[in-house]
């Protein structure tokens, strides 16, 4: 056990490399993740954008944070699918027979999710720049944006780990992501919450996507970030802790 813990990071780097090779051998995964959010971004900017009353001069500036969260929600489905495939093929049993830290197998998938979703987000930002997105944010604001997105990705990825380990079919492994993908629609991602009916507004203002969107939007506009950033971080950290505990409990039973 001491030797296993000693080489934890070395073991994790090996598992991370294995998972990343799967990504680079099928880059269509990242392309597929980007297609739907980019299509939604183009649809809302060029079809619905003129009808949206957001108070922003440039609707793409208002819209982009929600689109990035949608892309991450779509990307984590592949984490659940790859974990399910590893479980069904008996890969976990093979790794468990080796003198490695058991949790590094999961961490390899989790770190790969951070990298692959980061690539997807960068692609979406580049497309947004082409269609008019502009930001006055400085380097520290951009670091804050990517920091929040990274923590959000980590939170959703651990939920994906639970889905992948607990699923009975490949479709079931990825199906959990659908509500997450559409959660930004019931938030301030596309329109201000004050335009919504009271019941919908109450839900929109008290779910995790809204404070995350607002924090990212203020950072990109180089505006003062209020309590939204702390609320966003609290949501993400709480999800990470709870999802990690449940994921590890399920993993130990495999």
Your description of this structure?
It is a single chain. This protein is mostly helical. 76% of the residues lie in helices and 0% in strands. It is elongated and about 60 Å long.
Which terms summarize this structure?
254 residues; mainly alpha
Question: Would you summarize the structure shown here?
Answer:
With 254 residues, the protein is mostly helical. The protein contains twelve helices and no strands. It is elongated, with a radius of gyration of 19 Å.
Helix content: over 70%
- Structure classification: mainly alpha
Tally of discrete structural domains = 1
What is the number of beta strands?
A: 0
Distance between the termini: 19 Å
The arrangement of helices and strands along the chain is HHHHHHHHHHHH
Low-confidence stretches: none
Specify the overall morphology.
Answer: elongated
Question: Helical segment tally?
Answer: 12
- What's the story with the biggest beta sheet? none
Overall pLDDT metric: 87
Gyration radius (Cα, Å) is 19 Å
- The share of residues in extended strands comes to under 5%
């Amino acid at each position: 056990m001491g030797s296993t813990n000693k080489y934890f990071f070395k073991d994790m780097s090996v598992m991370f490399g294995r998972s990343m090779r799967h990504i680079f051998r099928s880059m269509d995964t990242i392309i597929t993740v980007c297609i739907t959010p980019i299509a939604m971004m183009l649809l809302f900017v060029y079809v619905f954008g003129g009808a949206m009353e957001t108070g922003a001069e440039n609707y793409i500036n208002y819209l982009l944070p929600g689109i990035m969260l949608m892309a991450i929600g779509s990307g984590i489905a592949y984490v659940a699918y790859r974990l399910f495939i590893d479980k069904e093929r008996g890969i976990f049993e093979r790794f468990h027979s080796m003198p490695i830290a058991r949790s590094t197998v999961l961490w390899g998938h989790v770190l790969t999710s951070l990298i692959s979703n980061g690539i997807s987000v960068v692609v979406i930002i580049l497309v947004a720049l082409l269609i008019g997105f502009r930001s006055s944010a400085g380097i520290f604001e951009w670091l804050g944006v990517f920091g929040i997105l990274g923590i959000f990705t980590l939170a959703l990825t651990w939920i994906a780990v639970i889905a992948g380990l607990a699923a009975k079919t490949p479709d079931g492994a990825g199906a959990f992501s659908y509500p997450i993908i559409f959660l930004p629609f019931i938030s301030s991602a596309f329109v201000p919450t004050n335009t919504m009916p009271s019941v919908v507004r109450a839900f929109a203002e008290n779910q995790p996507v809204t404070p995350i969107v607002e924090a990212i939007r203020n950072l990109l506009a180089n505006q003062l970030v209020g309590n939204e950033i702390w609320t966003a971080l609290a949501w993400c950290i709480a999800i990470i802790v709870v999802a990690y505990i449940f994921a590890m409990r399920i993993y130990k039973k495999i």
